[in-house]
Amino acid sequence: MRIDPTVTAAAVLPLVGGPANVVSVAHCMTRLRLGLADPSRADEEALRSLPGVLGLVVDAGSYQVVLGPGAVTQVTAALEALLAAPSGGEPSGAAHSALAGELAARGDRLREERRRRNATPLKSALRRLANVFVPLIPALIGCGVVAGVNGLLVNAGLLPWLTPALAAVASGFMALIAVFVGLNTAKEFGGTPVLGGAVAAIVVYPGVAKLTVFGVTLSPGQGGVLGALAAALLATRVEKWCRGQVPDALDVLLTPTLTVLVAGLATLYGLMWAAGTVSTAIGTAANWLLATTGPVAGLVLGGLFLPLVMLGLHQALIPIHTTLIEQQGYTVLLPILAMAGAGQVGACLAVYVRLRHDTSLRTTIRSALPAGLLGVGEPLIYGVSLPLGRPFLTACAGGAAGGAFVGFFAMLGDRVGATAIGPSGWALFPLLAGNRGWGSLLAIYTGGLLTGYAVGFTATFLVGVPDRPRPPA
Q1: Is 357 contained in some domain?
Q2: What is the DSSP letter of 416?
Q3: 173 and 252: one domain?
Q4: What pLDDT digit, counting tens, does each position of 361-406 carry?
Q5: Overall number of domains in the chain
Q6: Neighbours of 209 (CB within 10 A)
């Protein structure tokens, strides 16, 4: 179902308390993320009933309206335009300023109370980790697709005059990803981004090969994104200390110098070695896990991924994926985790078949299914399976079955990986890579998807559909 973004934005705005209550607007792949001065002014029931709104997620840091891919970008732009335009229906001048100030103060109190209740140290850490890595995903996707296409051309012996150029396009970002991680880390943790990037750049500088630490000669890129993350974090701490200790007259000279010097030496003589050891252990552990317990590991990972997404804990996997891509050229975990989306699609198809009389629900499924097939599962999660309850559990069963299928072949030595993170479902096909030919990778991944679809559909059809249709929103 296509929606008019301007109409939807105009409908959303008063239901979240009006322009004076909106302090920030952003979006991800599927969600409109609003910062509200006073979240209690939002009418959740009315928002859920709006055409095109697939669900709501109220987090400690934001108020998220699930709209689905494509639509969310257009609605966000329309909402920003409405907020920027003068409105005759809103208080103006001093009255507007007083109202905005009152709402902002009240919002600060409410947000602080909510943080104390809900923002555990783990959730806060994962949210900040996501803020470092999520902005890199578009570049990872683009370069990963180019790398996948280039691999197909090389294997087929086609266009030899073009493949070196494609390799350069695909590899440039990955060669310098440590710098981008450093920039984002410093920005997220309150430091100067360019200083974080400067220190993180040491990780990929070719000259580190001249240094020996703990009896081991360093290599460019050792420690990867984990080393860059640690280096930028340390640089931020050093910079903040300098800001409080260095006289103002010398701050512009001494603070950046000490930040780069202290954090840079610590990176060379400790952090790169330590992060390299951890990165190697991650790669070894992932390969060992799939080689020795493939079906079991696949079942657990595929079955638990949807709950991890619901809790936001899946963000912890982003640096692990990135580390594996840096080390091996692909992450073996993503194709297994992608099976959760297959189970979700199968479960929602069963709901569509069983609840023929629920026109509203079937419309939601038709609208969200294309995104689900391409690996964007949030519209189906928040619009279908989670509100109904049982289909969410049977979707997890489908994901577990698909993950076990892919894991079984990994145990036999056929590792299926992805050259980038972000896409899943059918969108992952151009990114497939591994230790076998592309035909084998295609067959195994397709088999996993079909298994996830079939088990998710069957389990939901038999036991996962509620006795009565979902009540009207």
Answers
A1: yes
A2: E
A3: yes
A4: 888 888 788 888 888 777 788 778 888 888 999 999 999 999 999 9
A5: 3
A6: 12
Give the Cα separation of 60 and 281 in Å (integer): 34
Q: What pLDDT sits at residue 118?
A: 53
Give the domain extent around 396: 302-464
Whole-number pLDDT of residue 106:
52
Neighbours of 167 (CB within 10 A): 16
Angle CA 39–45–46, to nearest 5: 95
Q: Is 28 a catalytic residue?
A: yes
Domain final residue, candidates 119, 140, 159: 119
Please tell me which residue in 28, 143, 242, 348 is annotated as part of the active site: 28
Are residue 109 and residue 151 in the same domain, yes or no? no
Q: Tell the residue number behind the tokens 């409080």, with chain if given.
A: 244
* 368 and 379 Cβ atoms separated by less than 8 Å: yes
Whether residue 31 lies inside any domain: the answer is: yes
Last residue of a domain, one of 242, 270, 291: 291
Alpha carbon dihedral 2, 359, 395, 452, in 10-degree steps, equals: -70
φ/ψ region of 53 (left if φ > 0, alpha if ψ in -120 to 50, else beta) reads beta
Strands 63-66 and 22-27 come out as unpaired
> Are 254 and 153 in a shared domain?
yes
With left for phi above 0 and alpha for psi between -120 and 50, is residue 212 left, alpha or beta? beta
Enter the tokens of residue 88: 């005759």
Residue corresponding to tokens 């280096």: 231
State the residue for tokens 């991924």.
Answer: 305
Beta bridge partners of 26: 33
Average pLDDT, the chain: 84
